[in-house]
Each structure stands twice: as structure tokens, then as C-alpha cells.
Amino acid sequence: MTASALPDETITGYDVWHCALPVTGRRDHGIGTVAGTVEVIILRLTGESGLAGFGEASPWTVFTGTPEASFAALERYFRPLVLGRKVSERDAIMGEAARAVVHCTEAKAALDTALLDLAGKCAGKPAWSFLGEKCRESIPLSCSIASPDFDADRALLERLQADGVRIVKLKGGFRDHAFDMERIAYIRDRYPAMAIRLDYNQGLSREQALRQVPEAAGYGLDFIEQPVAAGDHRTMAELRTMIDVPLLADESVFGPEDIQRAIAEGWCDGVSVKIMKAGSLSRAQQVARMAAGAGLSAYGGDMFETGLAHLAGTHMIAATPEITLGCEFYQARYFLAEDLLAEPFPFSNGAIPVPDGPGLGIDPDMEKVQGYAVNGPGNGPGARAA
Amino acid sequence: MTASALPDETITGYDVWHCALPVTGRRDHGIGTVAGTVEVIILRLTGESGLAGFGEASPWTVFTGTPEASFAALERYFRPLVLGRKVSERDAIMGEAARAVVHCTEAKAALDTALLDLAGKCAGKPAWSFLGEKCRESIPLSCSIASPDFDADRALLERLQADGVRIVKLKGGFRDHAFDMERIAYIRDRYPAMAIRLDYNQGLSREQALRQVPEAAGYGLDFIEQPVAAGDHRTMAELRTMIDVPLLADESVFGPEDIQRAIAEGWCDGVSVKIMKAGSLSRAQQVARMAAGAGLSAYGGDMFETGLAHLAGTHMIAATPEITLGCEFYQARYFLAEDLLAEPFPFSNGAIPVPDGPGLGIDPDMEKVQGYAVNGPGNGPGARAA
């Protein structure tokens, strides 16, 4: 793995916005619902040369933390660790940030993203070049089927089919088993070329899982994800002995420490890798590598995020051959009413092409960041184009 | 265990303050330093009768979370789960709060405390009466020796001796091994009646711990606490085989889920029980009970908190016979420049007498809460007596 050296640019500017972006519909998951708006935190690091690097924290209150916690981590606690430092001190800065505030892995991922974006712009290299070699030109996209209104998802499935998307993930466990099985059968029968994944987001009790997961496994699925509570490793391990379909962990595995335990204790066949859980692009890579070293598979997951966080995940996966099951960077195209990026998030024939421009490749539109801001410089709420 | 029934009082008022209180000195710990101010979040629930219940969240950024995260959990996310509900719905409310926001155990503890304080005031019963029977009249106090300036701690030791305090906990692992051993020897030689505990707060690497902990164990200590990182269970287990002194877990054990694992895997002899880690008084009790069921010991720890949180811990321990190693509710008396309570936090001859008045027994002084507020109603920063 040969990674480019980070440039010596000194960081002289540091700005943080808390943005609330309208979404087009409602998403139900085992652990909670997202509707109305998605809230993200945007970090801008400015270098002495005037170049800027951007990063996004995409928190989910029931999963990783609140947007307020991410905002405070970045605005108050990380700022003094970053201002005046050099981009080349990334490892030291990220280590200090990890120790300064517990949790807030989304804020740490935002900081790492902004450091790599600024590094890339200064060096004229893509962000992935600091993480290793490019192992792929594009990443197959999986889109989630998560509306409580299946008519809305039927329309989405038509759109996905037309767009060349060939992987869908059904969100289950938020209504009842019959609704889950009915939707799987519908997709399988109507879109036979579509690979189907089933994700319960901790939505089942142990007893429900022991009954429902084996039946679902009979439908020819790619994998089944996180049927039970994050801490219920015993049921995960039991389910593995009952089904032939790979059982993946999401909420159970945030960082390297968790995948280490999952491997040692044998309660999953694969893992959802997310920079918002791992706390940096490198820690996300490490999760995938540790998983692959033990024969476990991995896909690149997302939170409720904009194209900016999608870009960070894309660059991470571009340099991580161990992530073999595609990515889920669908929010910018299929869920947000309007993305924050100045150009559309890359998409081509059902996949995400890896950007090769400097840094992440696309900047956020600052007028949109200001316009959607509920807190931050320019004094949101909502002073569009301050 | 017979606990009183909770009253039917409806909650009609809900206010949250973020306060910053000056402290008299500096405290060094393995994982971080506290100096200048301590930041806590105060919750006031008002019942339909006009009575008010108070609770405190005492976060530590490097350990449980930031004050901003606790404030947001209480101000934005828990408020709709509480307003209009009855105090008697405590279990349901606490369950919903646990699921609504990850982490933020300090905010959850504040909510539980305020519910029990209000319940007690409505019913004319002490808060402990809702948690079981009173098992003790007072709790022996342990005070921490944590100043980087040992001269300051020499003066504190004289004061503790005069006050009848007979337990001290030395904070180690923040400078060097010689400094730790020198201070232990000083206390042991000069105050032979003083029980000594040693707490590293994760301050040692594995290699340091394997060398230093066995030597420290030769000094006749009560116990040694959390020498290594919270997740380093392997080194904890190894150290247990090397020393005759009980090895206690603090940062490694937050709630029942963690003590369950500690018992199953055998990496500690006892546990520090804190409502700010467990997320409620009942969950803290449960940790102590599970520990005792497996032959492990427990003491009642604190965070950087005011007398209000001390009171919550005191009521919890009053009804928890499994906590046999005393408590550490020393901040109000020995560390804060001024406490928030309207009367001095109870203390008598080296111990904390259990209050028997309605609720927690003492209210915060609202003029002080307003005066130390940096955020909350009355529009801090710092509008004393708004």
C-alpha cells in the first residue's frame, strides 16, 4: 500500500455549520424514523494558501449521537487541536481528537475528511491517494427500500431499475414480518436481476429474530443485517448456525475494537463499514482489513448524509479492496430534496465512479450551506447566502 | 425489597440550565485534567401541584460526553417524552429516553433524579424510598488526592484528617511512577489509620501497568482501579493474577451490559458504580447487584459534580446494600468554590448521612443556578439572579 505524503500546509481557518436539509419522504428503521429533515455538521478548514478542505459529520441521534454533540465536538473541543497545525500532522491531530472527546465518531470523521480534502487540494491529488492505491474505478450502489408507504418504494424501484441500480436493501422489522416478506417477494419476482439485502436495524427481539430471520433467509438474499440489539451477540451467534445467508453486523461494530471482538467471538459473517462509526477514513479501512483478514465480508454503509460525506466514503472505499459488497451512497440522489454539493454527486449506470480530481473532487455550495444552516458563522437560522 | 409507589403527579414544567462552576484547584487524572470550572446541566421538572424536582447531569468530555451533548439530550430530545406525563410513568419515560438518544447517560441520570425528587416531594417521602429499603444511615466518604501540586494535597490531607475522613483515593498515572509511590508512602506513613485506594483512570500503557501495578500492590492498598484503557480487558485479567489487591473497573464498566461481560470474562474484582455512567439510579443499583451476585465488590463513585448529583448518588446507595466500599461525594465540600445547593451537602464525621426529608432533601439555590448559567432560561451567560 503506497500512500502519498501529506503536504505541509498550515491550517489558519476553521468554521463549523449545523445544517438541516429537507428530505423527500420518510424512512423507517428498526431503531427509529427519519422524516422532515436530515441534520448534518459541515466543517471547513482553510489553509494558509487560501485553499479550503471540507468535511461532514452525519449523526443519527438513536445510533451514533446528536447533531448538537457533533457540533460541540467540532466547534469547541477540536478547534484548538487543529488551528495553527499542519495538514501533515493528521495522525497526531486525529489521535488527540480521539482522546479529547468520547463518542462523536461522526465529528472525528468530519475532521479527518476535511484534513484529507485540504491535503488533496494542496498537493493536487485525490483524497484516496493518501489512503493507499486506487483499487477500483467505480463502486456498485445499493439503495435502501425503507418507506412505510410501499407504493412510494414501488415508484423508487422503477427509478432504480431505469438508473441501472442492481442492489437494493430492504429495511425490515419496523412493522411486521408479513410486510417484510411481502416486499421481498415483490422485489424478487418483479426485478429478478436485483440483488436483495435485508436490514433490520436492531428491530427484532431475540424471539422474533429466531422465528423470522430463518424464514427470510429462504428468499435468496445477499445478506441479512443486524436483526437484534447491538449488544445481543448471543442471538447473532445462534442465528449464524440457523441460516445459510451471511449475517452482517452494523450497530454492533463501530471501530476496530468491535470487529476484533466480533471475530474472536464469531457472531457475524461480515460488517457494515462507515466512517461515521469508525471515526476516520483510516479507522474505517482498518475495520474492513481486519474483517477480511478473518474471512469476513464488508460493504460501505452510510448514515443520513449529503453528497459531501458520500464523497468521503467513496474515497475511503476507492483505496480499500477489502470492501467487496458495494456502497450505499444513495441519499444525495434519492432522498435529499437538494444536496449540498456544488455539482451532482457522481453516479453512472448504477455505480459511483471514483473521483480523480484534487481532494474530494467536489466542494459544497457555500450558499446552500449558509442557507440550510441552523447554527454557525453567518448566524443561522437560515440566513441564505449570508 | 419494598419500594414506595410513585405518585400520579403530572409534569407541566421543564427547564434546563448549563452551568459552569469555579473550582478551587486542579485535578489530574490518567485520561485528562479538570481545572478552572466544572460544567453541569441542571434539570427542573415542575408538577401540576407546583412542586419541583431537580436533577443534575455531570458530564466529563473525556469519559462520558460533553456538557453540550447532555444539554441537547435534555433540552431537545427528552423534553417531549416528559412534558404532560405522570411521575408514575418513570419506567416508561426512562425506557423511551434510553432509546431516543445513544450515550448521554449523564442526561438520563439527571432525568431519573428529577423524577424521583419530584415523586418524593409529592409523596412526602425520601427519594431512596422508591428504590428499596434504607440499608444504612450514613456512607463512609473517600476523598481523592489528585492535585499535580502535592503540597496542596498535603494541606487537604490535614483537613480530611481533622474532618474524620478515613479513606483517600490517590490518582496516579498522570506524571510518573516515582511520584505515585512517593505519595502513597507519605500517606501510609503519616496517616496510618487512613485506608488508601489507587486509581490510574486508564493512565498506564499495558507495559507500564505490568511493571507498576504489582509494585503499588505491595503498599497495602484497599484496591487498585482502572490502570489501563477501558477496552484493555486482557491486561486487566493478567494483572489480577499478579496481585493480591482487588482490581476495580471504572471506565470499563458503565451499565449492566458491561458488568455482565466483566463477570463472564473475569477481568475485575469490583466496580465503581456511578449513576452518570449507568444512566439512572435503578441501573446503577442493578450494576451493584449483578456485581455482588458474582462476588464482586462495589463503591459509589462520582464525576465532577455538585451537591445535587451527590444527593442522587447518596439516595441510590442508601437503598443498595451491595455497595459496601463507601462513596466519593467529596466535590461539593472539597473541590467546588461554591456548591449549587441551598444548604451544605450533608457531612458528618467523615461520612455522608442519608437524608430522610421529602425527595432528595435539599434543593439547588435557583439564584446560584441562574448565576452560574452559561445557557438556559433566564438567558445566561451569567445573568445572576435573572
Average per-residue pLDDT of chain A, rounded, comes to 95
Cross-sheet strand order for the largest sheet of chain A: 7-8-9-10-11-12-13
Give the tally of β-strands of chain A: 15
Number of helical segments with 4 or more residues of chain A: 13
Estimated radius of gyration of chain A: 20 Å
Strand content of chain A: 15-25%
Q: What sequence of helices (H) and strands (E) makes up the elements of chain A? A: EEEEEHHHEEHEHEHEHEHEHHEHHEHE
Assembly type of the chains comes to homodimer
Helix content of chain A: 25-40%
Question: Greatest chain-chain interface?
Answer: A-B, 23 and 23 residues
The secondary-structure class of chain A comes to alpha/beta
Description of the molecule:
The structure is a homodimer of 386-residue chains. With 386 residues, chain A is an alpha/beta fold. Chain A contains 13 helices and 15 strands. Chain A has helices spanning 67-82, 90-100, 105-123, 150-163, 177-190, 206-217, 233-242, 256-265, 275-278, 281-293, 307-318, 331-334, 366-372; strands spanning 11-22, 27-29, 32-34, 37-47, 52-57, 138-140, 142-145, 167-171, 195-199, 224-225, 247-249, 270-273, 297-300, 351-353, 373-375. The longest helix of chain A has 19 residues, at 105-123. The first copy, chain A, is globular, with a radius of gyration of 20 Å. Residues 380-386 of chain A have low confidence and may be disordered. At the A-B interface, helix 1 of A face helix 1 of B.
